[in-house]
Amino acid sequence: MQSLIEKIRQGKFSDFPGGVHPPQRKTLSNQTPIAKLPLPQRLYVTIKQHIGVEGHLEVRPGDMVLKGQPLTKSMNPFAVPVHAPTSGEVTTIAPHVSAHPSGLAEMTIEIRPDGKDEWIALAPLQDYQNQPKLKVIERICHAGISGMGGAGFPTHIKVSPKKNVEFLVVNGVECEPYISSDDRLMREHAWQIRQGIDVITHLLNPKHVLIAIEDNKPEALHAMQVACQENPDYVVCSIPTKYPAGGEKQLIQVLTGREVPNGGLPIDVGIMMQNVGTCFAIADAIFTGKPLIQRVVTLSGECFDKPGNVWALLGTPVSHLLQQGQYQPKRQRSRQLIMGGPMMGFNLVSDQVPVVKITNCILAPTEREMVQADEEQPCIRCSACADACPASLLPQQIFWHAKAKELDKAGEYNLFDCIECGACAYVCPSQIPLVHYYRVAKAEIRLQEEEKHQADKARERFEARKLRLEQEKAEREEKHRQAAEARRKALEQQESTTGNKVSAAVARAKARQQTQAAKEETPASDKVAAAVARAKARKARQEQESTSRDKVEPGEESKQDKVASAIARAKAKKAKQENASTAPDQAESPTGEQQTKASAGLNQTRESGAEPSEKQPAGDMAPSKDTKAARVAAAVARAKARKAAADQDKDQKLSPAPESASPTVALEVDEEKKQRVAAAIARAKAKKRVGVSSTDKQQDKSKS
Amino acid sequence: MSLRIASSPHQHSKRNTGSLMRLVCYCTLPGFAAQLWFFGWGTLFQFIIAVAVALGTEAAILELRKKDFEKALSDCSALLTALLLALCLPPLTPWWITALGAFFAIGIAKQLYGGLGHNLFNPAMVAYVILLVSFPVAMTSWLPPQQLMQQGYGLLDSLSLIFTGYSNEGYSLNQLRSGADGFTMATPLDSVKTDIDLGLTVEEAMAKPQFHEGTGVGWFWINLAYLAGGLVLLKAKVINWHIPLSMLLAVSVTAGFLHLMSPDLYASPWFHLFSGGTMLGAFFIATDPVSASTTNLGRLIFGASIGFWVVIIRTYGGYPDAVAFAVVLMNMSVPLIDYYTRPRTYGHKARR
Ligand code: SF4
Ligand code: SF4
Fold it and tell me: What percent of chain A has pLDDT over 70?
């Protein structure tokens, strides 16, 4: 290992494959010191400016806030708070166009500055070396620091890793053309950056600290060397200028010759990367107690009369910056603003977009500067793109498959290892917007996976339901069978009772005969016999009565059947209206049996509901209350049916169920799909914008 | 305020397909000039015929396919195809053969496959092979270099020969081809091959007047000129070094191996490198982006295989030159080569 650090100290670096050399154009903006700006009219502080979840809102419209006052609070490890960039009044909290390729509106706190620029009481962390590390990390979190190089990954999570860090790499490469914010920051605040590095070093205890700067920034190199000279463990590395040398993976390859394994993180090869801007912000947070409320933004491009770097408060709308840089829109035939660099930046949809923590540059180029790509021509398979690709991909093959929508093949060619650096599209002689194709393909693949996942879940649900329905059906059939059995028995019994009657009649006749005979013949003994016969007859009558009471029950049942069928009719009608496709057969004259079908149809959304309706026919309803009860039951059934239908609607919305409801849902999904593709593309862009000067992408993957 | 939205990158290198193709065309100029110097004006007329037919065919087909042909023609790919074909044809080939070739190249080998970027084979070479198989005599009727000829022939003679088959003085092509001794003078490659078949040694075969210091008169300079043009292409990063280098190395190694085995039976690597279309093939034909391999390793394999086949076909095959055959043969294997030579992506383990 000694040899590796020796090599690095001697300035012997590895190289990464590919790469391009677009015109640098850094002198346009790096000649003047970072300028301070007057306060803008309004500030738009986007609540979520990092990767993760937004913090909990702490203010309400109308509140007066002081500069540096937290506007949101971190409730969870992935939440990073935002702070008031100046003192003033919170006017509204509402969606506002965001610093995102899609320009989607995001929740934003609008602040009207009061012009006093009054700080909240600041509490520096004294003597951080003797404080528990957790406290330092907490301080970094509460200062709202997330990676400022690109992705905006919460810094406090990065600086509390589980594995040992061999190399802490401070990324000051800034390989994108035009941008010079890190350059100026290093030139002017090298010392504070070093303090920030000290803090991170204290937290991580890396074996070596490398500060990487491209060799086209000699002043910055010198400044950092001077700032770090007391500390021999800090190696300032001047690396060859080549785009995208500042990409996290590429920089690691240049410095150490190692590759971050596929699907892994830099920490897996013992490396942790931080951007110089992040180091600066950490020093601010620890030594002065100031949260992250401003950053250096480069204003460049030939449409600015006063290009240069400025300290922009987070939330400053771009229009304010344009004004300060004396933007001349007349020089652009079609107006175009880029946030970020020419290789990986994105076009702004509005000049009201606010500066966020990862905004490093606003570019307003003339047409002459940035030649608009001609119309796309066919790929001639020259593989200039493959020669330029730093990830050693075959862009032309991925493009081929992406265009043909053979997404699995595109994936096979490692589409997801593309860092969207744009080197391939930069060199492509056929002017194919390759990166655009990749973004779309990636978004589509993600969407497909999501859909598949959902379809799987829906299928599981569907199958479980089918099983349940079958079980219930079987149970019901069993019940019916038993009921039928019972009825049959009752009938048999009735028949046998009729037999009893006959015999009773016979007995009575006999008894009468006997009485008569007794009267005629022997009255005394006859009387006895008559008494016996009476007793018998009474007994027989009693028996008969008890059976005939039995007989009443079937009668009651038929009444109850009527009630049930009324309920069923009501239900069926409702169900038919609201949910025709669910149980198509229930529309026909609902008899007792079909009623169960109807309830089966409703059953899918309402399990408990089925029970009472089944109990009723078996029921203990008093015959006298028949009609009233029937009405009540019907009303209940209607209500239930309505609720069931509503439930089911909701259910369908939640999950595109593959059966009954699919046509409408499929339509919906189709439409949604488009929106989602757009959103996903936008997300993908934002996420990957990242990069090149990024130091913070590191744990990006662990999130996604 | 409406803002223009485009996908990153917003910057683009100045290079486009048309400018690349034109650059390739310019770099053939030294070789083109050398060919004119040694073989007269014929090649120029072939070029004109081929370009006219090629562009006409391309425009007509694109029109049929309802595409914007003006834009497509501006990519200059048809121009380059026609140029390469013209450079490969014997200078005094009858006009209709050239025209047919150009039509084949664009109409069949290129557009039928789906146009630029979709063709599996190098269009110029496919046309050349078809012509060679169909009209073997005409396609091998190279005149000796002017410097060795008894009767010279000028601009008008060439024109007349191409369009009528006879020179202004009424000589036929065959009469012109006859050397001082009344024998037909074949190209150096052809001549060496026939002589070896007749039982002569390489050295004896090279004793003829069309040889000079182990290579054919004129051909040496022509190849040298293409080499120079090719080096410019390399310098301008229009082509990669992989294909030319591996091809030339393979030619040298294969020829060298055979030559070492039997110097009498097999010509030297030097002879192979500077005869026929070796240099033209190595720098301008095998490097055709569309039909060549696209991975670095693949390019090495592709180039080396062409070099190998060139020597083998020249030595054992029925036709005198072999660049076209070798290129077409290897074009067929490109998809396979590309598939198995995919580079290792960053962060991935080496495959299998
Ligand atoms: S650079 Fe463009 S034309 Fe060349 S292979 Fe790549 S995608 Fe095709
Ligand atoms: S954008 Fe992707 S494919 Fe293109 S060069 Fe960069 S990493 Fe390679």
Answer: 70
Residue A353: list chain B partners with CB under 8 A.
none
Nearest CA to ligand 1 atom 8: A379
Q: What is the pLDDT of residues A275-326, one digit of tens each?
A: 999 999 999 999 999 999 999 999 999 999 999 999 999 999 999 999 999 9
Query: How many other CB atoms are found less than 10 A from the CB of residue A451?
Result: 15
Chain A CA closest to residue B237: A384
What's the ipTM?
0.86
Closest Cα to atom 7 of ligand 1: A396
Measured distance CA(A248)–CA(B48) in Å, rounded: 54
User: How many angstroms does the Cα of residue A380 sit away from the middle of ligand 1?
Assistant: 6
CA distances from A259 to A239, A478, A699, B162 (A): 17, 67, 15, 62
pLDDT recorded at residue B178? 60
- What residue's CA is closest to ligand 2, atom 2? A418
Q: Is the CB of A691 under 6 A from ligand 2?
A: no
Nearest to B347 among A262, A397, A433 (CB): A262
Residues A321-358: tens digit of each pLDDT = 999 999 998 888 888 899 999 999 999 999 999 999 99
Band of pLDDT at residue A55, cut at 50, 70 and 90 = confident
3-state secondary structure of A63: coil
Buried b (16+ CB within 10 A) or exposed e, A514-553: bbeebeeeeeeebeebbeebeeebeebeeebeebeeeeee
pLDDT tens for B292-326 read: 998 999 999 999 999 999 999 988 887 767 899 99
- List of chain B residues whose C-beta atoms are within 8 Å of the C-beta of residue A372: 6
Residue whose CA is at the smallest distance from ligand 2 atom 8:
A389
SS3 for chain B is: CCCCCCCCCCCCCCCCHHHHHHHHHHHCHHHHHHHHHHHCCHHHHHHHHHHHHHHHHHHHHHHHCCCCHHHHHCCCHHHHHHHHHHHHCCCCCCHHHHHHHHHHHHHHHHHHHCCCCCCCCCHHHHHHHHHHHHCHHHHCCCCCCHHHCCCCCCHHHHHHHHHHCECCCCCEHHHHHECCCCCECCCHHHHHHHHHHCCCCHHHHCCCCCEECCEECCHHHHHHHHHHHHHHHHHCCCCCCHHHHHHHHHHHHHHHHHHHHCCCCCCCHHHHHCCCCHHHHHHHHCCCCCCCCCCHHHHHHHHHHHHHHHHHHHHHCCCCCCHHHHHHHHHHHHHHHHHHCCCCCCCCCCCC
Shortest CB distance from A417 goes to which of B7, B289, B346? B346
Are B294 and A381 in contact (CB < 8 Å)? yes
A386 CB under 6 A from ligand 2?
A: no
Q: State how far residue A447 is from chain B, nearest Cα, in angstroms.
A: 20
Domains of chain B, residue spans: 16-182
- Pocket-testing residue among A400, A435, A436, A697, ligand 2, by greatest number of atoms within 8 A of Cβ: A435
In this complex, how many residue pairs, one in chain A and one in chain B, have their CB atoms less than 8 Å apart? 154
Q: Which tokens in the block code for residue A239?
A: 């690396």
Mean pLDDT of B111-123: 88
Distance between CA B178 and CA B180 in Å, rounded?
7
Contact B348 A371 (CB under 8 A): no
By the 8 A CB rule, do A600 and A667 touch?
Answer: no
Chain B contacts of A387, Cβ < 8 Å? 240
Contact assignment for A370 to B11 by CB distance below 8 Å: yes
